[in-house]
């Protein structure tokens, strides 16, 4: 979820808008350097990222931590056993402990946080950083689980969220002015406004940036169309899943601040499936990209239910979120449980039994 992106009238703002002034600490050390935070990982060598690699391909590179992981999965074993169960994860926003606990509850990782689900398939719907205390730790975990799952015959994959675009933009463009559609803004100011954490920026390394920039925006798995945002803006970027993902990657590769801002702004839009005509909007995406149901994060379930509050409220009681929210004539499944609002970080096996 993101504020201040020039989203236009279709966006309902529930939080108090802050100004775009950037605290002095952001620029006190010049360009962000690498820290020696104990949570850092050793940067992955260039050989780990062959040309054309994306984190959603089946044959994921092994990310070495010592000598823990050496072998890729045996495709023949997968062919005999068939695909494992499918799981999706909603917005994490830096809440590493809550994520680890939720994955353990579903039997996907063991007590040490290592993959233990064999051929299971796990999809993250984006928004790994900002607001919570350890966004880089979340990215490190997802990257490691991608290697461990692939070695076990399953997979762990991730989609591009608007907060990945925001963090990439803040790192690449900083205080460079962009045309926000509502005046002049900067990625740095928007990142801070929307929960950017200095500790994440200090620990952000090249391999994190490469990984985020190569994430897909849309995928279809077992009849489920997986996206981050509950918006029809994906239709602006192509008439097929491949076209959308290629366009997003090409936009990031061109490295134009205004173009990346426009992408960020569009993928920050929300509520397209909630109100009158919402089911038709879902159908337009399903008809274009395939699938029988859309599964998304981005908009916290309490917002979709019309509950009062925001991600910046200090009320620690939090909303009551029991599980995913099915709506839009049963065609949409919302997975953002509002962990930033003291809600629940959702990990759900698909299909739903409804």
Share of residues in helices? 25-40%
Which H/E pattern describes the elements?
HEHEHEHEEHHHEEHHHEHEEE
Q: How do the strands line up in the largest sheet?
A: 6-7-8-10-9
Q: Total number of helical segments?
A: 11
Taken from the alpha-carbon principal axes, the silhouette is globular
Cα radius of gyration in angstroms: 19 Å
> Which stretches of 5+ consecutive residues score pLDDT under 50?
6-79
Question: Main sheet, how many strands, which sense, barrel?
Answer: 5 strands, mixed
Beta-strand content bin: 5-15%
**Helical/strand content category:** alpha/beta
Describe the structure.
It is a single chain. This protein is α/β, with parallel strands linked by helices. It contains 11 helices and 11 strands. The strands form 3 sheets. The protein has a 5-stranded mixed β-sheet with strand order 6-7-8-10-9. Helix 4 (162-173) crosses helix 5 and helix 4 runs antiparallel to helix 9 (257-266). The chain is globular, with a radius of gyration of 19 Å. Residues 6-79 have low confidence and may be disordered.
């Amino acid at each position: 979820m993101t504020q201040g992106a020039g989203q236009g009238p279709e966006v309902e703002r529930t939080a108090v808008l802050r100004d775009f002034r950037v605290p002095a600490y952001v620029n006190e050390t010049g360009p962000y350097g690498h820290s020696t935070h104990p949570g850092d990982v050793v940067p992955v060598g260039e050989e780990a990222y062959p040309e054309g690699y994306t984190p959603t391909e089946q044959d994921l590179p092994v990310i070495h931590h010592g000598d823990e992981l050496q072998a890729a999965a045996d495709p023949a074993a997968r062919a005999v056993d068939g695909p494992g169960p499918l799981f999706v994860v909603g917005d994490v926003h830096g809440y590493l402990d809550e994520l680890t606990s939720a994955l353990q509850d579903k039997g996907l990782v063991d007590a040490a946080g290592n993959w233990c689900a064999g051929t299971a398939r796990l999809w993250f719907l984006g928004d790994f950083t900002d607001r919570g205390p350890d966004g880089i730790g979340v990215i490190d975990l997802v990257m490691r689980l991608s290697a461990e799952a692939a070695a076990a015959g399953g997979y762990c994959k991730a989609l591009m969220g608007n907060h990945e675009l925001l963090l990439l933009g803040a790192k690449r463009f900083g205080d460079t002015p962009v045309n926000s559609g509502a005046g002049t803004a900067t990625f740095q100011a928007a990142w801070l406004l929307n929960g950017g954490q200095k500790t994440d920026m200090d620990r952000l390394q090249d391999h994190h940036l490469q990984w985020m920039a190569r994430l897909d925006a849309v995928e279809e798995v077992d009849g489920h169309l997986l996206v981050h945002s509950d918006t029809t803006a994906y239709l602006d970027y192509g008439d097929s899943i491949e076209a959308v993902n290629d366009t997003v990657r090409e936009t990031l590769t061109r490295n134009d601040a205004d173009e990346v801002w426009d992408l960020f702004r569009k993928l920050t839009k929300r509520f397209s499936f909630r109100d009158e005509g919402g089911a038709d909007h879902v159908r337009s995406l399903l008809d274009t990209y395939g699938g029988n149901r859309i599964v998304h994060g981005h908009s916290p379930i309490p917002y979709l239910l019309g509950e009062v509050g925001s991600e910046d409220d200090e009320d620690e009681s939090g909303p009551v979120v029991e599980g995913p929210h099915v709506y839009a004539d049963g065609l949409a499944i919302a997975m953002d449980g509002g962990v930033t609002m003291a809600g629940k970080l959702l990990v759900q096996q698909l299909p739903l039994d409804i």
